[in-house]
Amino acid sequence: MDLKKFRATSARKRKPLTAFLLKLDKIVPEDMPKLVAKVDATVWKDVNCMECANCCKTMTPTFTKKDIKRISAHLDMQPKEFIDKWLMKEEDTGDMVNKTQPCQFLVNNMCSIYEVRPIDCAEFPHHNKKPFDLYNETFKNNLPHCPATLTLVDRLKKAVEKEYEW
Ligand code: SF4
Ligand code: SF4
Q1: By alpha-carbon position, which residue is closest to atom 1 of ligand 1?
Q2: Which of 118, 140, 149, 164 fits as disulfide partner to 67, beta carbons 3.0 to 4.6 Å?
Q3: 23 alpha carbon to ligand 1 midpoint, in Å?
Q4: What is the model's pLDDT at position 119?
Q5: Is residue 120 part of a domain?
Q6: Structural domain total, the chain
Q7: Residue 97 β-bridge partners
């Protein structure tokens, strides 16, 4: 994965793709779930998370109480010790997030706690959330970080503009 190229593409396409997602807030094509599933399947033929890990390098997951309990037990730590070492409370949301990026659990471009990783990581990049348009804000925020989301939204835009009168 050429992340430098991705950053350039993302910067170039961010404005039109954000405008598309904003429009999708108001007009949702009838068969959107089918279309998303069809286009998303093409995305994963071209994007390999194992060669990327950009989400782990540039973003932070939210750690729920259950995540903290599960991961700290896995690491043989007390939850408080785990929090003090790696997490902080985000000011505006109150969410527990990583103090630093890249994520401390990213080792050799792989998640070292994969089997107990936060639910937020397990569900990322949220392409199969339903209804898709409820997550437009998330996808907008993730365009500069996730090659899979950038590809999905780009292909969706092309498909919707081809098949519908927008
Ligand atoms: S916990 Fe694992 S999957 Fe989640 S951000 Fe850290 S390295 Fe990535
Ligand atoms: S989810 Fe997105 S940012 Fe994370 S590794 Fe996969 S393609 Fe990269």
Answers
A1: 117
A2: 118
A3: 32
A4: 97
A5: no
A6: 2
A7: 62, 88
Tell how far the Cα of 139 is from the centroid of ligand 1, in angstroms.
19
The pLDDT of residue 10: 96
Distance from chain centroid for Cα 151: 12
- Quickly tell me which residue has 């910067």 as its tokens: 11
Written as one letter, the residue type at 64 is T
Is 49 inside any structural domain? Answer: yes
Q: Which of 109, 136, 129 is nearest to 25 (CA)?
A: 136
How many whole angstroms separate alpha carbon 84 and alpha carbon 104? 13
Ligand 2 centre and the CA of 34: distance in Å? 22
Evaluate whether residue 119 is within a structural domain: no
The separation between the first and the last C-alpha atoms of the chain, rounded to the nearest angstrom, is 33
Rounded to two decimals, the pTM is: 0.92
Q: Which two tokens stand for residue 164?
A: 């519908």
Distance CA 123, CA 149 (A): 13
Residue of 44, 21, 33, 24 whose CA lies nearest to 146: 44
- Per-residue model confidence (pLDDT) at position 97: 98
Q: What pLDDT is recorded for position 166?
A: 67
Rounded CA separation 110/82 (Å): 20
pLDDT of residue 26: 82
Strand partners, 110: 107
